[in-house]
Amino acid sequence: MGMIILGLRNLLRNKVRLVLVAILIGVPFFLLLAMYSIGDAMQRQTTVLNENVNTVLQLRGRGSMGHVNMVGQDRLLPQDTLEKVRGIEHVRQAEPYLLAMAPITPPNFVMHVGLAPGAVKRLESHGEAGNPRIIAGRDFMPEDAGQDVAIIGQGYAEWAGIRPEDVGKATLTIDPTRTHPAIFGMDRPTRELRIIGMYASGYIFGDLQLFMPVETFRSIYGIDQGISWLFVNVDNVENVPVVAQRLQEAVGDVADILVPESAAVFTATTSQRVTQLTSVGGILAVALMVIVVFFVLLMIVRERAREIGTLKAIGASNGGVTTQFLTEAVALTLLGGALGLLLFRGIGEIVTGRLFALSIGPFLPSHYRPLFESLAINSNLSASTLALVIAVAVLAAVIGSAYGVWQAVKLSPLEAMKHE
Question: What is the mean pLDDT of residues 228-246?
């Protein structure tokens, strides 16, 4: 017990050395905590991405675009497809859509989309994108189901002469009889829809759409049964291939199934590459901390070979000397670890976030990079993680000190004093 107390008291013998050693140990300790936090954040972000990025499959009528008034492309999915899809394991959500084309002047097309009020407002040719920003008015509410209301894209609104300040009062007339070489007319009456919202998607074609409740769409175009597009949201990217196979078995030859292959590519390349990089960084941080702790404490012991010889000369046993120096080494390591932890708690989130952006960001595809720029670094480490880091540091300190002491205690007191 006396040698343990002596080892603790020795910490204060040289305050400058104490501070320098604590800093030398604290810096790699901080880096290791930073790498652990980046790895944890990366794992959480990857989980979110696996659940949300490209986990949507699209179904539409075999060989058809699914537009109810498009020449040669008006074949729809049977209505019972929806229930078949919802019964498949790993399907989190199935959202049916109905689509019609409308000609506008100058020669162009706009898209009319019928959907449930709570469904994602998907954009033509960008089916996985959706819910563009509402810039005027409001979004759909449950009570809008079946009502003559619509949300218009700003490009379509500009053509129709509807300004943002008109939203809520302006109306748009839907005329199913209008034709074009690619559109056939439908013998249906016109209908006026009140524009309750205006959205902006960020690209030209995305802004040329009109969203309305699906019941309203069916009434306007006389479509009692059938689905243009059915988007199937899978619970995890890893389950996409399995769900795609089961969808094919369930719906048979009536549907084309568009599988988001980019999801599998993302998981197999970008996600794995980022995970590998953070793992390598963690290993390097551990190696740095072990090397620093080992050699710093080894040097401290070797510097004090004369002290070891003196202790042996006055009767201290090899075990007692070893206990004293190991106690001092462990205490120094814990102090350095405490300094690293305080530093991490103070600036960890800022430093690790920038470190991650600089080191990992260049490896990300441009369309995924914004998702990672907001990576949530958490400076509140779990007790198990902190205990593991401390255990690694203490083990390195014990090995480094024990090796130095072992070399010194093998010598006689006189040899030890001359060895310094």
Answer: 89
